[in-house]
Amino acid sequence: MSNVIKHSLLTDLDIHLFREGKHYRIYEKLGSHPLTLNDEWGTLFAVWAPNARQVSVVGNFNEWARTTHELFPRTDGSGIWEGFIPGLGKGSLYKYHIQAQDGRHLEKGDPYALLWEIPPNTASIIWDFDYEWKDDKWLAERKKSAGKPKPYSVYEVHLGSWKKKENGQSLSYREMAVDLVDYVKKMGFTHIELLPVMEHPYYPSWGYQVTGYFAPSSRFGSPEDFMYLMDAFHAANIGVILDWVPSHFPTDAHGLADFDGTHLYDHADPRKGFHPDWKSAIFNYGRHEVRSFLISNALFWLDKFHADALRVDAVASMLYLDYSRDDGNWIPNKYGGNENLEAIEFIKAFNEAVYKEFPDAETIAEESTSFSGVSRPTFDGGLGFGQKWMMGWMHDTLKYFQENPIHRKYHHQKITFSLVYAFSERFMLPLSHDEVVHGKGPLIDKMPGDEWQKFANMRLMYAYMYTHPGTQLLFMGGEFGQTSEWSIEKGLHWALTEFKYHKGLQDLVADLNDFYKNSTALYQQQFEDEGFEWIDLSDGNNSVLVYIRRGKKKDDFYIVACNFTPITRDIYRIGVPVAGTYKEIFNTDDRKYGGSGFANAAELTSIEEKQHGRPNALDIALPPLGVVVFKLEKRKKTTKNVTARAKVKTTAKAKGETKQRNAKA
Description:
Elements: H1 12-20, E1 31-37, E2 40-48, E3 52-59, E4 72-73, E5 80-86, E6 93-100, E7 105-108, E8 115-116, E9 124-125, H2 136-144, E10 153-157, H3 173-187, E11 191-194, E12 198-199, E13 212-216, H4 223-235, E14 239-244, H5 270-273, E15 274-275, E16 280-281, H6 288-303, E17 309-312, H7 315-319, H8 341-357, E18 362-365, E19 387-389, H9 391-402, H10 412-416, H11 418-421, E20 427-431, H12 451-467, E21 471-475, H13 500-517, H14 520-523, E22 532-536, E23 544-550, E24 557-563, E25 569-576, E26 580-587, E27 604-605, E28 616-622, E29 626-635, H15 652-664
Parallel strand pairs: 10-11, 10-21, 11-14, 14-17, 17-18, 18-19, 19-20, 20-21
Antiparallel strand pairs: 1-2, 2-5, 3-6, 4-5, 6-7, 6-9, 8-9, 12-13, 15-16, 22-23, 23-24, 24-29, 25-28, 26-27, 26-29
Helix pairs in contact: 1-6, 3-4, 6-8, 12-13
């Protein structure tokens, strides 16, 4: 094998865009690229290491010798080293040996590598993709429906712990393409969100400490295997959201930290460059080459792996210079404020690039503060995300549900407050992995009462979530009432689904997904205040909420009534927007879900009587710890002489069971 040949894929325009922070396909030029040069096959390498004294390629092809394959530095001041190594092809292990200016010798993985060794090994692997996509129909439909209102219910998954084999191993990408895809389709979710699949050395980081930004984790198979999984989701009409982590990176010796002997990707000053919570490095968003790296990476997953959306992790930590820092441990911006101006500009540039290149994709921010305009377009002064996690809703809802129902009347504002700001952003309602780790326990343990009440509360919470404005996200296991805290070492406890209440909860979530997807009243105006209207938010004494969800057509609306106590109400009068007959179309207390079967009669007729500021009223029955949804069947003029009352379609046995539960409560 001969030594390195001087060669480059980079043009002057590439260098200009890279140094301006505007090269959004730089992964096509940097990294390792198998190709044929002058009829000789081999691999071209290019790496950004501007402060290095010398860079060479080491690997299993040269016994990791640092002097045999030295790269050439470009003379244009870009700081890029490059060269072609003949005879070296796909599958070879390699790293960059970097001699720093201070004399230190560093061995680094390739920041642009498409594949890495299975951890704990840390070498990069020369790779090029060999896969024929089959999702043209999905992509065409995605493009056709871009910008139109659509249902968006998300199943959040950690691939390594969703299901384990008998030997304790995780499923492979190919195995997930059967088991996981079939399950998500059966459950009716429109999207799946994957915790970071990018290569990460430390498994317990859940993927949030990334070293291989351009490589799906080799723990579960090859990049082509992951493409096969993505294809399988699209064939099942399921969109895929990938978690993306531009907020910080780990300080492992083979990673980005101290890459060329300097703080190349991060800040040298720990007040800006070190994250106190995660003990990791913070990207230098003001360095143009770092911007090119990160935005290229975002587009890479949309381009090469056909991702439908990116959920951006820990946005709040990027926006604020004093995030998780005490006074004196952070540096104000040039105006004396705490906003990270460079990060804000980077986020705007990222969103603009995504929506320009992939207008039918979506970006979603995990942002936990009241920063204004997170999901507002950049041309209107916002950050440009498509959606934002509604963390306030999550905290208030879980705190409210943890209260004993008898005390909920004292906390009524917690369950109503989210509607004060529900339309200030395009919100996604998350019950995510963060709520079932670090001693927080599973969601079911947050519910008060005996077993029946715990599951009734869960059914109530989910139906309230699905009928609340916004989109929804539920972490794996929550759909059937996982009884232990999430552990990456263990798979979900699937045997629980054989038990009545767990199976009932699982069936409820599947039916909620179908109900939501088939109800324009629930998703057509889910980000607009025209899609929601209170009927009654003030009945704190009874812990009852009644509201309307609207589609765009005249009579396309649902009336939703939530009873947050185990007390049944045979007759509960509500004002209605239209006189006529109404039908109960969803009830969380249905016996098939493990409920008591406390339901309304097949048809209810409104009466001409003022209630809740409306000229017509309807008498309904409220099940214990339940949600009922009504639909207008037919407009019909009614009179004051009509004496129709709510007719409870239930059994004496159900009433007796409910009475006993109420007595216990």
